[in-house]
Amino acid sequence: MRSLEIFKRHLKEKRAVKIIAGIDNFDLTNVANVCRAAQIGLASAVDVSCDESVIKTAKENTKLPVFVSSTQPFNLKKAVKWGADAIEVGNFDALYKNGVEFGADEVYEIALETMTLTENDNIFTCVTIPGSISIEEQIELAKKLELIGVDLIQTEGVKPKQAVKGAPASELISVAQMTIANTMEISKRVNVPVMTASGITPQTAPLAFAAGASAVGVGSAVNKLRTQIAMAQTVRELVGTIAYKELIKKETASRTASF
Predict the structure, then answer these.
(1) What is the mean pLDDT of each run of 10 residues along the chain (259 residues)?
(2) Residues whose CB is less than 8 angstroms from the CB of residue 106 and which lie 6 or more positions away in sequence, other chains included
(3) Is the pTM of this model over 0.90?
(4) How many CB atoms lie within 10 A of CB 49?
């Protein structure tokens, strides 16, 4: 039986891993591979686009809880009907390439409308805070989202680059540093758990947890790989690095503080 309780427990233990298929990914074969790889690799949840066929495919190929992402409140309401275990206002990364950007007020209104539409559904709700707005706006938005009862906040970088497998550590850290910095600032000011996404890889995930994240969201480092085997290996590597996060927390604190 599929349950969100495992994800919530991992969230409480600050080791949750969400594998993102992509808000604009309607390739059912790829979605199936991502979902199977996430389960094989011992991730905590998967995240897919708001489409009935995609959600059905995800639920047929994993027992992990299925997050569904969209920027349309009525579509998120439909996702609940279609079987979503959690809904998310986001992920915005895939939309930036089409010139779509979101301000703090717009995200708040979308989140508020979504919460209103689903208030009787008892659905776990996550909201992504745009990395393109100032950190002051991000913090203020996070506080407002906490007040309306959002369960999880996701951070991102500024129009993040796609992480390249095998890239030098310095490059991987550079890609992830903005979202990690945002996590540091936001997690200190709200009681809502924070998930770090954008440019997160097995090499940078421990930095996110050291910065205060309760979870990481990983997309292109997994969903752009060609085979399910490669995807599963990356997920397993990612989960493995998190097991050692406490050992490197002190070493990375000074480094992340400079981001």
Answers:
(1) 83 95 95 97 96 98 97 97 96 71 93 97 96 95 98 82 52 77 96 94 91 95 95 95 59 45
(2) none
(3) no
(4) 24
